Hints:
The protein is α+β, with helices and mostly antiparallel strands. Helix content is 32%, strand content 34%.
Amino acid sequence: MEDRVRPMSQADLEQVLVWRNHADVRRYMYTTHEIGLDEHRKWFGSAKSNPDTHLLIFERDGQASGFVNISSTRCLEVADWGFYVAPDAPKGTGRALGKRVLTYAFGELGLHKVCGQALGFNERSIQFHTVLGFTEEGRLRDQHFDGHKYHDVVCFGLLANEWEATVEVIVE
């Protein structure tokens, strides 16, 4: 299978919005309301104009299968990432996305560190980060209020040298 990442374009907007608004994706986001097309376009325009933000589409065999946002922090070599796969993507797509995107982040973007966060109840994301070699760096207790209750936020970090030691043993 040919896996690749490419910059998100205007042509991807509607597909990414459908994925983002899907109940299985939306329930794990900080913002859980259904996003309208105008709000989505405004977000895209703002993010696209920021040189420290990389909006990416993950493709498997030419088929768009996931979305990734990599945003540099105060230190340009350290970035936060957020991602989701198409709700109907085959099993293993998430791991393939992670492997390809982290290779891109540490290789092509030259990052020193990638940081991630997961809501405390999102066991799949927590396990996903662990499988990819991330270290849990902290737990922010009751950090996020979803309108009904508070949730912990689990913080992860992965250094470039840790990725180099991990990437070869990750099975897709």
